[in-house]
Amino acid sequence: MFPHHREREQPIFSTRAHVFQIDPATKRNWIPASKHAVSVSFFFDSNRNVYRIISVGGTKAIINCIVTPSMTFTKTSQKFGQWADSRANTVYGLGFATEQQLHQFSEKFKEVKDAARLAREKSQDKELANTALSIAAPQFSQDLSDDLQSPPVMCVNGPEDKLFRSQSADITLSSEKERIKKMLSEGSICELNLEAELFTLQDSNSKLVAALHEANANVEQWKKQLVAYQEETERLREQIADLEAHGGHGPSDLLKDELTQSLEELEALLKAKDEEIHNLQSKKSDYHEVERDRDQAIHRLREVEMRNSELERRIQNTEQNLSNSLEDRDRMDTELQRAIEILDIKIFDLNDLRQSLVKLVDK
To answer: I need a surface site. Which of 21, 56, 219, 362 has the fewest CB within 10 A?
Structure first.
């Protein structure tokens, strides 16, 4: 549905629960983070191999927790569980409506924790490889600097100044790149909140659609019953009119009372059905309001995606500039190496000339 959506965090599981946080003062009492049950969702970032638990209450995220292999979800009762988040320095608690929902969340938590452990192991392997390369690179630079140390350093100060300025430009571009990445991550957090809100609205929308379909089916059935009751009412009215026209007494009076009572019961039933139809119509208006809120959330999400696209474009431009600066630096390094080689040749020639002059003086 959204092209940039698949490249970022995606919801993989969602449920509804009452969210609590531990009291930071006593570390014993629970403080409600939401007035009612809200959606609690697991998200996965395929770019960073990161799993996150998100819950949005109103306009703010009440849970924004990265799942780590050291976390443990503990069931403290049949419908309540908790886990600790050391980064946020708090403990989250979830109260579910059924024991089955608690079991499903606990199983999903274990599954996500194992996946996070595997992702961390892969990341550590990559870091070890990068560390080995970073250790070898300074050693190579040190050997090169040792080879280049010679008395006529003053002759190559010009190229060294150019190299220093190139490294300064490299550092400036790197800092600019980090700043833009930070802006992009902030935009991703905003998009994540909107995505969680949209996910909640879609869940509510599907439930309202199912309830609306069921209500429409009930309305059709009630309409048929209403027509049958109206026909029965008209028939009873005709019978009462016939009895009153004949002016009968005795058993006919008893039958008239029974028909009058049946007529009153049918009228009460018709009134109750009318109220139910009115309630269903009001629910239909609530469904339209949810549709409007969902459209607004989609519009906001698209705006955030456009902003992230612009930030990505700026990062690409910065990376291109950085690549050009690195190429310039490599070219200056080549020129510097060439000047040093020429200088070494000149020194060798001067040494030969000096030895020749010494021999001449000795003679």
So the answer is: 362
